[in-house]
Amino acid sequence: MPSDVTAKGYRPVEAADNENGDWDGDLTRREAQLAQKEKRFRIAFGGNILVFLISLCLLAISWFSKPSLLECDKMTSPYSPVFNGGVQHWEGHFQNVFNQTSKYRGPPTLELESAWEELWYQPGVGLSIDEIAKLNKTRPGVSFTEIDGSDPKNPTYAATLEVFHQIHCLASRVFPACSLVRQATWPLRMFNESWHSYPWFLTDELAGRMHVDHCLESLRLSLMCYADVTPVLAENNPMRPTGLQLDFNVHHKCRNFDKMIEYVQAHGVDVPPE
What we know:
This protein is mainly alpha-helical.
């Protein structure tokens, strides 16, 4: 006998609507939201990885890269305004054998005296009070010499470069009895007073002696401070009584003196005479 269900007939039940009336649409929206979140996560994660890799590369570069000679110079030297464009370096051998010709060697002549004077008779440099502080030279009770035309509200103070003072000590003309290194090898009669004016202390032997001692002490201090540790090689030479000779054509890394002169001539100031 047919059942009641069969008798009454079967009709498939239609899918019930959800509260919004669209299950498929809601599922699609949620999938899209999840996909969007996943995309943002991938972008953020990739960005973080990129930043990390860039930082790692920069760290490696800073760790393994070598500073330039100029950077090393600044780190191992007191402050100087000349580092702002006036310092370059060269590397090579000195030309310094015993009989090496040079315009700075030989008996006194006007040309030789002028060549020496050009090495040190150069403009000074101007410093602000902040730059003087970088030299650790500000102290109570000490005032500094302002250059002509300096702004009273922001003064510029006069200074000379130590290298010019040192070369001046080698080049200055004084008594034979109290002469400096270069002039000590030549008697005063070989100098012509018309070439240059003599220093004021030529009339005072004691003052001249003190000046010379000051110069020798300045050179000693500088040589010991910048103690050059470059090896001077001994070469075999059977023609020498000792069987060897020292090679004074020593390899060096140096500051370019001409570049420094260009800088002080372009940016220098007049320093009142002492």
